[in-house]
Write a structure and sequence with these properties.
single chain; 115 residues; mainly alpha; elongated; transmembrane helix; transmembrane; membrane
Length: 115
Amino acid sequence: MTTITTNTAWDAKAAPPVNTNTFIDKWNQFMESQADRITLWFLVSLVFQGVFFLPVPAALIYYAGAPIAVLFITLTLFFANIIAGMGGAGIKTLLWLFASSVAIHLLMILAFVLF
């Protein structure tokens, strides 16, 4: 039994190369490579946030006149990281929460100190 094969123009074209040099692709590769270190990233996230970001609302509210919402945002992000880490979330969830927490806190600091 033979199969019929046709060689049309669209069959002969190769697929365009996929660009894997974007920031998101590199970030995903990094997250996947850290899967065996999930407990370490959970502890690093908690220590980093506990030392650097939990005092931020006090400083911003007292010195920069920030609203009380800064405190709620900080505590929400901190407890979201705790719940995700202790609840068994994956490495991608933990690292995205940690990265977004860092970005949000830096934006809050810049917004209330500079403006």
